[in-house]
Amino acid sequence: MADIAPATVHLVGAGPGDPELLTIKAVRLIRDARLIVHDGLVSDDILALAGPQTELVSVAKQRSRHSMPQEAINALLVRFALAGEPVVRLKGGDPFIFGRGGEEVDACRAAGVPVEVVPGISAAIGAAAQAQLPLTHREASSAVSFVAGQCKGLTDQDWSGLAGKGRTLVIYMGVATAADIADKLIADGVSPAIPVAVLENGTRADMRSLRTLLADLGDMVAREEVKSPALIVVGDVAANALARDVLADWAAKGESISEMRS
Known about the structure:
Layout: E1 9-13, H1 24-32, E2 35-38, H2 44-47, E3 55-58, E4 61-62, E5 65-66, H3 70-82, E6 87-91, H4 101-110, E7 115-118, H5 123-130, E8 141-148, E9 166-172, H6 178-187, E10 195-200, E11 208-213, H7 217-223, E12 230-234, H8 241-252, H9 257-261
C-alpha cells in the first residue's frame, strides 16, 4: 500500500466578522473545504459559507477556559494532514496577529506537513474602519503598536513608549483588565487625559464605538458592560466630541483627573 502524501493545512484569516470582508481566496477555500477547524471568534455568517460536504470542528477558546489547548490543536491539524485530509484552519482576524498562527505553522513544518497562510483583515483594521477611527493620521499619529491586554507579568512590562503624542496603541483582549491597563499606562507616564476608544463587536451589526479618556477607561467598560470581542484604542486619533465633553465636564466640576480616578 502506497504511503499517503500529507495534505495541505490552510491557515485562513476570517477577518473580524463581516463575511463581505473575506478575501476571494478565503471564500473559495471555505466553500470547497471538506474539513474546517475554526475558532469561536469566526462568525456564524462566515461558517454558513461552507458547503454541505464540510465537517466543522470547533476549537473555541474563551478567557480562562479553552475547549482544546493550543498543543492539542496543533496535533489535530497535523494528524488530519498526515492522513491525507486537507484542512482549513479558520481563524478570527488575521492568523499572524494574536492568532497563534506562528505556532501552528511551526508544528506543521516540524511534521513535514505543507502549510499555507491566507491573510485576513485584523480586528483592529476592521473595527477602526467601521468606527471611522484612523489608526494613523498625518496630524495625530505616525506610529501604531498592537499589544495583548491579557498577558502574564502585565505590571512588569514597560508601556511608556507605546502611547502618547504622535502614537496610537491598540490593545487586544483587554476588556477584563481594562482598569489595570489604564493604571499601568498612567504609571508609565501616559497622560490620564489621553483619548480612548473601545470598539466592541467590530464590523458586526451590533458593533459599539465608545469614547472617553484614559482615566475613565475601567469605569466606562464596567458601566457600559462591554463584552469581548472588543478592542481598546489609546491615542489622539480616538478623540471626538464625547471625549472632549468628558474632559470639559470634569473641569467644570473642578475635579482633576486624579480625583476622578480615586
